[in-house]
Write a structure and sequence with these properties.
Elements (H helix, E strand, L loop, with lengths): L4 E5 L3 H15 L4 E5 L2 H13 L4 E7 L7 H11 L4 E6 L13 H5 L1 H12 L5 E4 L7 H17 L7 E5 L4 H12 L4 E5 L3 H9 L9 E4 L4 E3 L3 H7 L10 E6 L3 H12 L4 E4 L6 H4 L16 H14 L3 E3 L4 E7 L2 E6 L4 E9 L3 E3 L15 E3 L13 E5 L3 H11 L4 E5 L11 H9 L3 E4 L2 E7 L6 E6 L5 E5 L2 E4 L3 E3 L23 E2 L2 E2 L19 E3 L11 H22 L1
Parallel strand pairs: 1-2, 1-3, 3-4, 4-5, 6-7, 10-11, 10-15, 11-12, 15-28, 17-24, 18-19, 18-24, 19-20
Antiparallel strand pairs: 6-8, 8-9, 13-14, 14-15, 16-25, 21-22, 22-23, 26-27
Helix pairs in contact: 2-3, 10-12, 10-15, 13-14
Bound molecules: flavin-adenine dinucleotide.
The site of flavin-adenine dinucleotide has 39 residues, from helix 10, helix 11, strand 16 and helix 15.
Length: 570
């Protein structure tokens, strides 16, 4: 197999040579290191490599180039080699600071750092790295290895667990690829008509008349398999026969966190998931505001680590299917899965999250995270300094986001379908918006399309009354049109607010005393629902902050409450 390429671009011959040598020395056996002295030459070389069918794993460009801004070159690199990781190499803290991982000159000079922060927020680059120091710079190589791991995960796993052979444009293959990718199972796809595809079909003893065909790392062959057949191969379909201490429903950040903490306290813990380990967070390409990951971490990366951590503490993960019913039982609760399977637990945690209402317009999905954001996007606010940001939504969350973003952006436009904000937004926010000169409101407006090469560049707005359209430049679109909690399957004993979010702890009491629905002499434990022994955490909880860190924090609190509940029950 041909070695993938690591490309470095720098106008300064000295630093280009040093970077080239550092990479060649460490990665020369597995990768081809290619150096170019200008962005123009690098663009030409990237095109040649694409024409030759060569994979490019990483493109690194020095921030200090003058011929063309490195960030623009890296944005262009994405259009030529979409899966390559794009890295801006920034000056390190000087020879006197060889072990600093943070580029010290940039910390001191925030203005100089702004183009970098903006480039990350706009998806023009995947990461920035301080140039390597002399000798063994393990910090630099750790970052490069992480980038290579992420690239290999998305683009070319060296050791695939599954091979999928199907027609190039098959919807079924797309579904299976999505299932495997969201569960961090490394796979490769072979078009049935390609030489590789034909070879794998032959090896699997298939003539290709029924597709897709899956070949697992153990050599098992599955022809047009159902979801549970696939999860069974990875040991994720089974359920324990015995009653467990804790059953967690939903493997997003809240569920994973609770599972880690409950299992680490010695509680037998079952983690039930219907779709993909990692939940909503797992679909985020880069979580930038989770503590401890200064350059961000992919949602899939975070989920994989958490899943492994839960497993190492002895938790039992199962993708036996969606949980469709929760019933009281002699020693706790019975949980029923859609496929008819049943599980028993002494206590239950509901961490089933929400579905954000999505906007449906051409171009939006492709720009998710690179200009198009669901949720408040507060962590991106500073990166929109001097730019034009659009917000879709007419409720308080949209108003608050507008006021926050207006502190940085040159202009903030709120687009609403209705003819005023008054229907769903508080008066005080409307007053604040009216008094903020760089916020304008476009009523009777919807988003008809979004476009941009690599990141959002234009939005097409449509007047909902006249149908007239207008295409305008836009740097970001923040969508705040509500979320629906996954609670329809719960029994009436689990009290919810008018939108379906689950009430807990303090929300179940009135003036410090439990509401009439609570029948026990004790008060509800933190994060306990109105059904004693059933707890909840994360986005699905009434009043939750919709953040990964909050979900993780609540998961750990819920695990402590469940421990306390079970101790008192024994
Ligand atoms: C595109 C996107 C980007 C985001 N980026 C960020 C970010 O950068 N930073 C940040 O802090 N937050 C971000 N968020 C918000 C963050 O992802 C959520 O706040 C967080 O995932 C909530 O965690 P949770 O565990 O409560 O729920 P979820 O992550 O929604 O997980 C719930 C899980 O429950 C499962 N489930 C549902 N019903 C059932 C059932 N009946 N049976 C079994 N399983 C079930 C679901 O399949 C899902 O896996 C982002 C959200 C989105 C959509």
């Amino acid at each position: 197999m041909t070695a993938p390429v690591l490309m470095v671009v720098d106008e300064d011959a000295g630093s280009l040579g040093a970077l080239d040598a550092a990479l060649r020395h460490r990665y020369g056996h597995d990768y081809l290191v290619v150096s170019e002295a200008s962005p123009a030459a690098a663009v030409g070389r990237l095109r040649e490599l694409r024409a030759a069918g060569r994979q490019v794993a990483v493109v690194m460009a020095a921030a200090a180039m003058t011929a063309a801004p490195a960030t623009e070159f890296l944005a262009q690199a994405r259009t030529i080699q979409p899966t390559a990781k794009r890295v801006l190499v920034v000056p390190r803290g000087g020879a006197a600071a060889p072990s600093f991982r943070v580029p010290v000159p940039l910390v001191a000079d925030r203005q100089a750092a702004m183009p970098i922060l903006r480039a990350i927020a706009h998806g023009m680059i995947d990461a920035y790295l301080p140039a390597p120091g002399a000798g063994r710079d393990e910090g630099f190589h750790r970052d490069v290895s992480e980038l290579l791991e992420e690239w290999a995960h998305d683009a070319a796993p060296a050791q695939p667990a599954v091979r999928i052979i199907d027609q190039q444009q098959s919807a079924r293959a797309h579904e299976l690829r999505d299932l495997l990718a969201r569960n961090s199972v490394p796979y490769v796809f072979h078009a049935a008509e390609s030489a590789d595809g034909q070879a794998w079909l032959q090896q699997a003893g298939q003539d290709g008349s029924v597709l897709p065909v899956l070949v697992t790392y153990t050599g098992e062959v599955m022809v047009d398999p159902q979801r549970d057949q696939i999860t069974a191969v990875f040991g994720l379909a089974a359920l324990p026969g015995a009653t467990v201490d804790v059953a967690v429903v939903g493997a997003g950040p809240a569920g994973l966190s609770a599972t880690v903490y409950a299992a680490s306290e010695g509680l037998s813990t079952l983690l039930l998931e219907r779709e993909a380990i990692g939940g909503q967070a797992g679909s985020s390409s880069l979580i930038r505001n989770y503590l401890g990951f200064p350059r961000g971490i992919s949602g899939a990366g975070l989920a994989t680590r958490a899943f492994e951590q839960a497993w190492s503490f002895g938790a039992i993960p199962s993708m036996a299917g969606p949980v469709t019913a929760l019933e009281p039982a002699a020693d706790g609760f019975t949980l029923r899965m859609a496929g008819g399977q049943v599980s028993h637990a002494r206590s239950v945690l509901i961490t089933t999250g929400v579905s954000y209402r999505r906007l449906d317009a051409p171009g939006l999905n492709a720009l998710l995270g690179v200009g198009v954001f669901y949720g408040a996007a507060g962590s991106e606010a500073a990166a929109f300094a001097g730019e034009h940001v659009f917000i879709v939504g007419g409720a308080n969350s949209a108003g608050q986001a507008a006021v926050n973003l207006a502190r940085y952006a040159q202009q903030v436009t709120i687009a609403v379908r209705g003819d005023s904000l008054a229907a769903r937004m508080s008066r005080y926010l409307i007053d604040e918006i009216t008094a903020t000169p760089n916020i304008d409101v476009r009523t009777t407006t919807k988003i008809a399309a979004a476009a941009g090469a690599g990141s959002l560049e234009t939005l097409t707005l449509q007047d909902t009354e006249t149908g007239a359209t207008q295409t305008v430049p836009a740097s970001a679109l923040v969508v705040l049109i509500g979320a629906v909690p996954h609670t329809g399957w719960l029994p009436p004993q689990v009290s919810r607010d008018e939108h379906g979010f689950i009430l807990t702890g303090g929300d179940l009491t009135q003036d410090g005393t439990p509401a009439a629905s609570w029948t026990l002499p004790r008060t509800p434990l933190p994060l306990e629902t109105s059904m004693p022994g059933v707890f909840t955490a994360g986005d699905v909880r009434h009043g939750s902050v919709k953040r990964v860190a909050s979900a993780v924090g609540e998961g750990s609190i819920a695990a402590t409450s469940m421990y306390q509940y079970l101790q008192n029950k024994r």
